[in-house]
TrEMBL record, chains A, B, C, D:
<feature type="domain" description="GFO/IDH/MocA-like oxidoreductase">
    <location>
        <begin position="152"/>
        <end position="283"/>
    </location>
</feature>
<dbReference type="Pfam" id="PF01408">
    <property type="entry name" value="GFO_IDH_MocA"/>
</dbReference>
<dbReference type="InterPro" id="IPR055170">
    <property type="entry name" value="GFO_IDH_MocA-like_dom"/>
</dbReference>
<dbReference type="Pfam" id="PF22725">
    <property type="entry name" value="GFO_IDH_MocA_C3"/>
</dbReference>
<dbReference type="InterPro" id="IPR036291">
    <property type="entry name" value="NAD(P)-bd_dom_sf"/>
</dbReference>
<dbReference type="InterPro" id="IPR051317">
    <property type="entry name" value="Gfo/Idh/MocA_oxidoreduct"/>
</dbReference>
<feature type="domain" description="Gfo/Idh/MocA-like oxidoreductase N-terminal">
    <location>
        <begin position="13"/>
        <end position="144"/>
    </location>
</feature>
<dbReference type="GO" id="GO:0016491">
    <property type="term" value="F:oxidoreductase activity"/>
</dbReference>
<dbReference type="InterPro" id="IPR000683">
    <property type="entry name" value="Gfo/Idh/MocA-like_OxRdtase_N"/>
</dbReference>
<dbReference type="GO" id="GO:0000166">
    <property type="term" value="F:nucleotide binding"/>
</dbReference>
<keyword id="KW-0560">Oxidoreductase</keyword>
<protein>
    <submittedName>
        <fullName>Putative oxidoreductase YdgJ</fullName>
        <ecNumber>1.-.-.-</ecNumber>
    </submittedName>
</protein>
Length: 399, 399, 399, 399
């Protein structure tokens, strides 16, 4: 297990933007970043309300003089610090509509970034951000955190190695129930911004969770999309954004993909599950039971691959993402931490003046962020055109 | 548990068409029909090859003089028998392309019929058959056997009673793997006719299994369809009919349905599963584990309803479909037998000169058969038009 | 699939003793016996109350002249019939305390017998019955029906073939909840006799269900027992027989077995499950999900063996016990029917004057019945002696 | 979610004893202790080999001057530090045989302690340690980490509140397979000391894992034991300590408990599972799927309680142990961290001069440690006396 940062010989210093009271994801970022003892949270702009920003700092053990009132202040004051105190990276855990300007400010100042998904408010912002990242050369990760699960990474390596043959079908689903009723009317902060087109963007469920489901299939299989047809629904009366939807995707190799997202399915918690069919085998994985994956091949007993870093069947990507032996379950925090762990490796390379792969990274990056925004844009557009097939070749996509 | 046929005071007499050597479904029909000791198999036209028809009879304990060489011979000779020996009903267990002429002959002769699905080769035949059934007044059941599972019937009653509120989403899937390779090239009789457009009809997987998945959702929810968009695929090189496909259905009440069918998913056996989302609750059921159904409601623990005929939570339809107490699993044969059981009740009414409901029956009937053929026709047509939305209001549909 | 009885060329004729109104198991016997169309129920002594015996006959489609008032009448009148009408075997589905005299009468008259378990009221009766069976040469099966599941038979063949190495631990459990409250006080016939020492014998839960659990382990592994220590409990106040209990068994090869039985575990239905540990592998099987078995080997993914008669991994015993392809679940009735199927093969041999194996049969037999009674006797005795180790080498046991 | 330590207004300072290269549990302690950002690891005696102790420090980010070579050095030098730098607590993550002297040194110096289980090498040490803790007044927790799972704590509160009625049966199992072969011969450090009586103590599997299983039942139910009967086995040829065993426990209220532990069950990873039967309900929980618990009550659908801190059904103990909303799985690290979290609350009270409950704590404590050693001692003694019933009333036990 890694702990320190090799030749760097110190912890990486983190700033958190967002994460003030009422935030769920800010805490996740700080725990995930620090889990391996490779980083410490030293600064923050925890709220767009400067007073609340200050007040939230003690809960993160952030010193008062580094509890800033805005990203601008954060960047300015951190740049003014000696290099050996200055932060190394900024984690963005704010509502969607603010991601772009925060990320832009951070990237232009040369800070590495871990940004929540969807990466921006719309595709144009995403494309611009991609250019900025390319220009600045920072490490930029996007928190498609479900790609951090060891068995997801094992599956990806197996698929890319051809162990399942040609991939022909991908069924990716993300089913929740928490927005069954109009929580956004009940002063529930999470629900409020996610259902508000001014803050969430063009899509509701499709922006919030279908992007994860789509990304998971893309990440696992490497299949490149060609066309998309989508139908979105609003089932909760009066809501402004989709709370249910379904897309069909034609991949360039002829495979068929389906993405289903729901926020109105009673009792479903965070049920991201995926099935992949290849000519040589098929797999199924479910986020709520992340320590096992089912692999099936005709004529053989079904195989349950457990997250076992010491097993002969575990491949390198999978093993590298484990922290505990088999039977000692790992879960959400550890997967999230694996995004950080992989991004940290790239950051250390950058800090040390060594090259690092920018595009086909083990962690989701700015190109995946662009593709996610493209997915949202084309899904919404197709739905508005009665489910018409729209082109969906994303130039920026990872291979 | 029923055993005898009430006022009729005798077993019903059955003839089987199809079911010769190599047939899987013929044996299922005979076991299912006789399971409750309410019917006996006394006659058959077990093969279209007269010699094979004779040769197959002993395995069913059919006497040589009632082992006929064709449906025509069967009808002619049975009609010539005294009424107290003559068969009461004919079960049709032949490949799709022969259903219509057999069923027509049987119905016109006044025999009750249990017919395999899909009911006919095409929609025109189905419509004609419906008219013939209406004219003759026979009992006509279609073997959408999965509707016979006790928990499916319980779910239907719960939904129709409003226990799940307004239904908004239905996700119905039927995933198999047995046609992953081109078994039809290897002298496998089942595979051969099912992949042959001249015998199976316009669709492959969509005719063979998506019809079941669609029917299951319709049966459970009672939702009426409005439009359908479908995309079919042939993944096994050289195959003539779809082995994978996906349809989106808009129901008249605004609900969204999806139907996915696959015959190329490694290791998947007969995995019909359905999820239904309503405003007051959601359910999930899986054919391969038929003795339990999951019901979820926000804010409550998830509920596993087991097939327990004595439990307070079990409703009338569910209990009536059980033969064993909880924990003593029931399965495929018993569900299939429940189609017979329900059809027998109608037959006894008919034989006794009493009225019986022709359309909204507990068992799948000729109207469901017509709707199934309409589903296949519009799915194929939509797929040929690149997934265009096509009208899908079926006039004959049960409510 | 078998249907007719080979060279015998006719159905076997069955008489049922017990099974009158309120009986659950009588109906199971008749359905199981007739499932494959190899037998027909033609006679019965359905109740010890002659009037009720007559009244129950129509529900089984037994003709009035063969609805007898007692086993004595049944035997006498059947023996008086011409051989080509006379019954071939008698199924005994009555409370425990009556098994012996019924079976004795049947066996001495030369009829084959299928007898419910536990086989007799006490061990002395069991030993005597064994001698009678040996003398008469009839086929005698005991309805340890859970041994009829295809995957149980597959497991047995795998274990006996050494695929799991030396067996070192067997954990067998049978957990129910239906006697949580004192149903026997509420005019529930099943509960009444099972909790009455005069009718059930020396044990309650241990006689009713622990015998199944013990038998399942013995059947699967072939391990021979050496010693037993047992502790029984009565948790429902006022009950006379154990409703919970636990035994530890030392097998002759040094393996350790545990048997746990409960009838007071809320919500547990019929949860017979077993785990077997060998030096080369381990397996787990659960009766409520009988179509799958989990096989584990260190360093390999866990394997789910499904009941797939066509799979390369399915062995001969397993395949022979299947009636349906994979994914079309089989369950309780079919397993029960497999006891009949195997016993029928022996009966046909006997009727045809051919030899048949009496002891190490694929179906549970009179020797297993004796061992079951020995298990009950020693369990109760050990419990009365505060869990002392008692000898448990059963001379009559199958190898 | 807690982060800082209330009125204390600083992180607690931790020292780790053990955890050098090859250690699994040392890393778990450091991650668990720091997960909530309430503590920081500042000192260590990471190995009994002083050089290795120094060499292991960087991996934990421990400064060289606080990387000590022994517990004695650690205590001496830390006591010499100013109070505002000195450690607050010592975590002991060494093999069993060293726990006592380390803990004694720590406790006598007035440091709070988190000690691995089993707490000591034998019962006499445990009793002495208990006295020392009582005298010194330190906070002393024992890492029966499985009690930290939110659903375990929810279950405990439900049971102690009487929601399951009187508890009558507890079946607790801990099944592993990793010691199937003699890993201890292959230079596997974990296996080596655990199978060595000089280092592990009187028991192998029973000391290592059965103690957890026993403790889990005790913690959940609060039942007090009266007598124990145990049978231990060594299945791996040449091994010196039990690798399989089984105990039966009579509780003072008349309930029956069983504890089964195995380290030789192929493919079983870390399968701790428990079933509890009460007069009003029953529950089942499995460590490998810790985010759900099954609750059953006769006549009701089975209930799956998920770890949902916001659900109406979640009680206070359960909710307080959660860090993430439902569907975002939590696992091993978080449960372990909950032991720390609860102990930290007590430490803060102690540091602040406020009283704290010493015995009936939410975290496992020195009294549980004593009971665990008593469990091991009586299990081994009973097994040596052929499974005789031995008294098992532990005077020190929590109520």
């Amino acid at each position: 297990m890694e702990t320190m940062n090799g030749q760097l010989n110190r912890k990486l210093r983190m700033a958190l933007v967002g994460g003030g009271q009422g935030s769920f994801i800010g805490r996740v970022h700080s725990i995930a970043a620090c889990l391996d003892n490779r980083a410490e949270l030293v600064a923050g702009a925890l709220s767009s309300n400067p007073e609340k920003a200050k007040a939230s700092a003690p809960a993160y053990d952030i010193k008062p003089d580094r509890a800033y009132g805005s990203i601008e202040e954060l960047v300015e004051k951190e740049l003014a610090l000696p290099e050996d105190q200055r932060i190394d990276f900024i984690s963005i855990a704010t509502p969607n509509f603010t991601h772009f300007s925060i990320a832009k400010t951070a990237v232009e100042a040369g800070f590495n970034v871990i940004c929540d998904k969807p990466m921006t408010f719309d595709l144009a912002q995403a494309e611009e951000l991609k250019s900025l990242v390319e220009k600045s050369g920072v490490v930029f990760a996007v928190s498609h955190n479900y790609t951090g699960y060891p068995l997801v990474r094992m599956a990806r390596e197996m698929i890319l190695n051809g162990e399942f043959g040609e991939i022909q079908a991908v069924r990716s689903n993300y089913i929740q129930g928490w927005l069954r009723s109009r929580l956004e009317e009940e002063d529930q902060k999470q629900a409020a911004w996610r259902t508000d087109p001014a803050k969430s963007g063009a899509a509701g469920a499709f922006g919030d969770i279908a992007t994860h489901a789509y990304n998971l299939g893309r990440y696992m299989t490497g299949l490149l999309p060609a066309e998309i047809s989508c139908n979105l629904k609003i089932f909760a009366p009066g809501r402004q954004l989709d709370d249910y939807g379904h897309a069909v995707i034609r991949f360039q190799n002829g495979a068929m993909g389906t993405v289903t997202a729901s926020q109105i399915s009673h009792g479903r918690e965070n049920d991201l599950f995926i099935e992949v069919d290849g000519t040589k085998g098929a797999l199924a994985w479910r986020q709520e039971e992340p320590n096992q994956m089912i692999v099936r091949r005709n004529g053989q007993p079904h195989s349950i691959y457990t997250r076992d870093p010491n097993a002969p069947f575990m491949n390198e990507s999978g093993a590298a993402a484990c922290r505990l032996p088999a039977g000692h379950p790992e879960a959400f925090f550890e997967a999230f931490a694996n995004i950080y762990r992989s991004a940290f490796d790239a950051m250390i390379n950058r800090i040390s003046g060594q090259p690092f792969e920018p595009k086909n990274t083990i962690y989701p990056n700015v190109y995946d962020g662009v593709e996610g925004m493209f997915f949202i844009q084309q899904s919404v557009a197709s739905s508005q055109e009665n489910g018409a097939w729209l082109p969906f070749q994303c130039e920026s996509a990872r291979s």
